Amino acid sequence: MIITRFPPSPTGYLHVGGARTALFNWLYARHMNGKFILRIEDTDIKRSTQASVDAIFEALEWLGIDWDEGPYFQSKRFDVYQTYIQKLLDSGHAYYCICSQEKIDIMRKEAMTAGGKPKYDGTCRDKGLAKTGNAVIRFRAPGTGTTIVKDIIKGGIVFQNSEQDDFIICRSDGTPTYNFVVVVDDITMGINTVIRGDDHLNNTPRQIMLYNALGSPLPAFGHVPMVLGKDRTRLSKRHGAMSVTAYKDMGYLPDALINYLVRLGWSHGDQEFFSRDELIEKFTLENIGKSPGIFDQEKLLALNADHIKAASPENLSNHLLPFLKERGCMAEKGDFLDSVIKTLNTRSKTLIDMANGALFYFQENVLYEEKAAKKFLKPASIEAFKQLIDQLEPLESFNENSLENAFKKVMETTGLKLGKIAQPVRVALTGKTVSPGIFEIIEVLGKKQVISRLQNAVQFIKNREVED
Ligand code: GLU
């Protein structure tokens, strides 16, 4: 069984690059009917916060990335790490070191002046020292030969072991170090596939050495190229919103963000649009690309519009309701909201567009935009509004046909062209000059609302005449 994991460090929000890594692991596990594990890497106590943990959960839940095991917290697993440190000490793969920081600084400087890497020189390696108050524990690295990372994405990468010194696995205060705990976790959690950003590639040889020392089989590694901004520099705030939840707040659909992030680094022919199910069905590691993905906000926005178009009203209403509530609109799920959505889903790039566009449907008293009212709500329209009311009143049901006839009759009796009638009606019904099609709106609002809005507009024009 394929077992993957996502191990974020809770030192900030979940950014889009991290979300892509999570997605790759999640999709692969789902595609293979495997298992996806969530692990919070919170050993850096100074930088880890509960707020970040909560933000990561919120983002994953919104994206619909669910986990089969966990969340595990590294901060609660120190006894496991302790057991594994002891194993390495017992097997001679680790040793106590009492070199002072000053001494290490000097040996590093010397190594650098000699033209090498700043390395620990192995002073305590063979001393067989016992545990003392300020001793650290170092891993006995091979020192010679090579370590090969067989990367699914990048191919084989050879690292010279002479480059790698005896690194610390446990600090003098008893806390284990990063590379060590990752390996212990991945071994004990049964992880057999590790997909992560290629910024971690340099850690991998050290981790492989630890696997070997512990006698554990290696997982398959895949290091994914980073996501870059349009200027091909590493993604940062300069490139726009970076946190997943910012996209939630800006009215993006989780399926759109998922689709976009997966395509940044993975492809299936030249297909751009994928539903969540299609991604699960089609996602494999072979099609992860070797070049970095370029994050382009405009493309993401266009894809969001496509997903809004393709989503069912039922699904959209779940995501739209919070935006309507935020705008003081107490809409509820149901047929009315569904039909409102159907008039807006081809003309909204975000849920914010959609919520703004939907508000007029729920306002008993339409708020006229000043310019629109000035231009279109004039005495000349009163007659058209009255005629339209007369035409609509006896209709049993509204449909395109019956509404077209009603408007035709009004054109005949008033001698006005369709545009001269439709635009004032639009303002009377919506308060705005831009809206979904006039027949669509009338159908959705229904007879009672339409007639009352037309009557209100007549009254509005009359009142203004008096004021003038
Ligand atoms: N905690 C690491 C990070 O947030 C991930 C480490 C890994 O994938 O091995 O970058």
Helices, by number, come to 18
Using the alpha-carbon principal axes, give the shape.
Answer: elongated
Q: What is the helical fraction, as a range of percent? A: 40-55%
Q: Tell me, what is the CATH class of the largest domain? A: Mainly Alpha
The fold-level CATH name of the largest domain is: Arc Repressor Mutant, subunit A
The overall pLDDT, averaged over residues, is 95
Number of strands: 12
Considering the chains and any ligands shown, give keywords for the structure.
single chain; about 475 residues; mainly alpha; Rossmann fold; Glutamyl-tRNA Synthetase, domain 2; Arc Repressor Mutant, subunit A; 3 domains; three-stranded parallel β-sheet; three-stranded antiparallel β-sheet; 18 helices; 12 strands; about 50% helix; elongated; binds glutamic acid
Please describe what this structure looks like.
- By secondary structure, the chain is mainly alpha-helical.
- The protein has three domains: 147 residues, 3-Layer(aba) Sandwich (Rossmann fold), CATH 3.40.50; 74 residues, Glutamyl-tRNA Synthetase, domain 2, CATH 1.10.1160.10; 151 residues, Arc Repressor Mutant, subunit A (Orthogonal Bundle), CATH 1.10.10.350.
- Helix content is 49%, strand content 11%.
- It has 18 helices and twelve strands.
- It has a three-stranded parallel sheet with strand order 1-2-3, covered by helices on one side. A three-stranded antiparallel sheet has the order 4-5-8.
- Strand 9, helix 6 and strand 10 form a beta-alpha-beta unit.
- The mean pLDDT is 95.
- It binds glutamic acid (GLU).
- Glutamic acid binds next to loops.
